[in-house]
Amino acid sequence: MRENNYRKWLSLVAMSLGVFMGLLDVTVVNVALPTMQKAFNESFNSLQWVLNAYTLVFAVTLLIVSKMGDMYGRKKIFIASLILFVIASVVNGMASSLLILDIGRGVQAVGGAGMMSLSMALVASNFDGKQRGVALGILGSVIGLSSASGPLVGGLLVDAFGWPSIFYVNLPVGIIAVIMTAVFVKETPSYGRDQKIDFLGMLFSAATLFSAIYGLIQKETNTSWAWTDMRVAGWLILAVVLLIAFIIIESKVEAPMMNLKMFKHINFVGSVIVAFALGSGIYAFSTYLTVLMQNYIGWSAFDTGVHQLAMSVWSLVLGPVVGILGNRFSKKWMIVVGMILGGIGFILLINNLSVDMGFKQLWLTLVFVGIANGIVNPVLNSAGMEGVAPHEMGMASGLLNVFRQFGTSFGVVILGMVEANRYNSYFEDHLSAVKMPAQAAAGLHKAIINDGPFSGHQIAFSERLSKVPFAHDFQQVVIKAFDHGMVGVSLTAAVIVLIGAAGAIFFMRDAKTTI
């Protein structure tokens, strides 16, 4: 008995290594982009596809690999995903062109999707009773920690060894994870081995997610395009049409890729709502928090990572504790409390924004948002699995991750629009107060509006502009414009997480009835 228990926890270590490696690679690349830009001599917009290729393929393949795991054994597909991820990582580190790197990132995302979605399902099937809640809580803490520690790890690796090191580091970690998974993780039954593969359902699910995520990416990278622009709206409309077609197909197929009856389970619907709110509120907000720290406060990538430990450390500390508490108290109300704490954290930032902002004004927000993520993420994994039949756990896990990922993409776009609109409005209203030649005002107005909030500080504090008589007043306007935008971003994020809390209140249940 003790030996079996020992093997269980080592299996959790193996799966945690895979998840940590996969999610870390999502955020760690952000820090390396400036170095990559110099190495490849490409524009920043072109470099964005190093991120977007991973995001897009990751979301598209999540459900497919989840279903394959349910059908053929989650351990087999998890190990295959690990191996694919490691091979693609090595290719990325050796990439001689941006095209090769983009392709490698897409392949890497397939492996990352398998590791992420199947890890939760494997934990749920390798553990039972109270141990399952604790194990899922620990895995949730790993998920939160890996996402939040990206800037710190990335800054260390890039500064010390160059950008390829962020990919090469996956080789030793991946080899250890593969060996430990093979030895310690217990395989799940191959549910539906004799069933026909629902290729049509897989095709339409992938096409639906691709259209939706790509439409949001188009809007994110081209903020001047209206939602009604067919280069944006066309993709989103196509996503709706494909979704309707997918639902019709799945309702008629004998062995569908996705059991639509899962959405009749009100607790699962509540978990999906929370997952979307967590992604679009807390995870998407992290993008703008990093910009505030690096571009406007002036911290380096490494310093930003160090300061963000005040937020990320809670995922590590609270994960196991929350897993234990989830066995004794209502998961639903723990999630509600966590989401409300996140909302409070966003509101606190509004009151503390200033032109001379530092860690003293920021730490409370980091703590509240960190605690919120540390509570919600682990409990959500466990709550989302309750009532789900064993043969559906892979798909349920995949769906939770899809909605979290889609929520993040949606949130980045929505928060970006709020930031840009409020930033531009403040800048245009207050630029006239800066005493400068009309020609200079026109040129700077065009540059700031075209380059957007993320680059405004770089323009305002450039060496050339800093020497002109009106530099200080102009710089103050730019900083205050960004802060004005951050007020809107914080309010929007607070509303989103509070909607998530409301979704938990009205939809989530603590009863454990199987679908």
Structure description:
With 515 residues, the chain is an all-alpha fold. Among the domains are: 195 residues, Up-down Bundle (Growth Hormone, Chain: A); 59 residues; 64 residues. It contains 18 helices and no strands. The two termini are 31 Å apart. The mean pLDDT is 85.
Concise summary:
InterPro entries: EmrB-like, MFS, MFS_dom, MFS_trans_sf. By secondary structure, the chain is mainly α.
Q: Using DSSP, what is the number of strands?
A: 0
Q: How much beta, percentage-wise? A: under 5%
Q: What is the fold-level CATH name, i.e. the topology of the domain at 1-195?
A: Growth Hormone, Chain: A
Number of helices: 18
* N-to-C series of helices and strands: HHHHHHHHHHHHHHHHHH
Query: What is the molecular shape?
Result: globular
Q: Let me know the average pLDDT.
A: 85
Membrane topology: Multi-pass membrane protein
Keywords: Cell membrane, Membrane, Transmembrane, Transmembrane helix, Transport
Protein name: Drug:H+ antiporter-2 (14 Spanner) (DHA2) family drug resistance MFS transporter
Family: Belongs to the major facilitator superfamily. EmrB family.
Topology:
Elements (H helix, E strand, L loop, with lengths): L1 H39 L3 H29 L1 H21 L3 H29 L2 H20 L1 H12 L3 H4 L1 H15 L14 H23 L8 H23 L13 H32 L3 H26 L4 H22 L6 H27 L7 H38 L7 H14 L1 H8 L10 H37 L8
Helix pairs in contact: 1-2, 1-4, 1-5, 1-6, 1-8, 2-3, 2-4, 2-9, 2-15, 3-4, 3-8, 4-5, 4-15, 5-12, 5-14, 6-12, 9-10, 9-15, 11-14, 11-15, 11-18, 12-14, 13-14, 13-18, 15-18, 16-17, 17-18
